[in-house]
Design goal:
Number of helices: 6
Shape: elongated
Oligomer: single chain
CATH topology of the largest domain: Alpha-Beta Plaits
CATH architecture of the largest domain: 2-Layer Sandwich
Low-confidence stretches: 1-6, 161-167
Order of helices and strands: HHHHEHEEHE
Radius of gyration: 21 Å
Number of domains: 2
Strand content: 15-25%
Number of strands: 4
Mean pLDDT: 85
CATH superfamily of the largest domain: Lrp/AsnC effector binding domain/regulation of amino acid metabolism (RAM) domain
Distance between the termini: 31 Å
Largest sheet: 4 strands, antiparallel
Strand order of the largest sheet: 2-3-1-4
Structural class: alpha+beta
């Protein structure tokens, strides 16, 4: 694990050209360096240099988001599980169980107030219901104080994540 000192964690301000380049990439990730250069009034070499430097400094990342509906999944399940106090120490282990046992688990996070947030995609409600029942039959329910489940329908036109602007 990489440990960062206070200097490397310090907030970084973007210069005007850097902000404009990032805004254009958010607007359209398919812009070429040449197109960006023309739009921001720089030469292509400068845009490449700025882009490379920002990426090296981890100012932005490339992220691939699967279109789950085209992969046959029809619903996104959002689970908010509250863990009982005697079992709080096992929260990380239970998160690992979700990630290991549910291959369609998109992400699993722990909150600071004793909750586990699970995001998973399913072909239909019956698939989720069966997997949910099997999971809690295997791991028990003593560790759960409560669970909220939300279902979000997916279709080929839905966009779960949309970033409009960085400014």
């Amino acid at each position: 694990m990489q440990v960062m000192d206070d200097e490397s964690c310090a907030a970084r301000s973007l210069k005007d050209n850097e902000r404009r380049i990032l805004s254009l990439l958010v607007e359209n990730q398919d812009y070429t360096f040449k197109e960006i250069a023309k739009l921001v009034g720089l030469n292509e070499v400068s845009v490449r240099r700025i882009h490379h430097r920002l990426r090296q400094e981890n100012v932005f990342h490339t992220l691939n988001i699967p279109n789950f509906s085209l992969l046959g999944y029809r619903m996104l399940i959002l689970q908010n599980i509250t863990v009982t106090s005697p079992f709080l120490i096992q929260t990380k282990r239970m998160m690992g169980c979700f990630l290991d046992e549910w291959p369609n688990c998109v992400c699993c996070h722990e909150t600071y107030d004793g909750k586990i947030l699970v995001r998973s995609v399913w072909r239909d409600a019956d698939d989720f219901k069966k997997a949910h029942g099997f999971f809690f039959q295997k791991h028990g329910t003593d560790w759960i104080a409560g669970e909220q489940i939300d279902m979000v329908p997916l279709d080929h036109c839905s966009e779960i994540l949309r970033i409009k602007d960085i400014t």
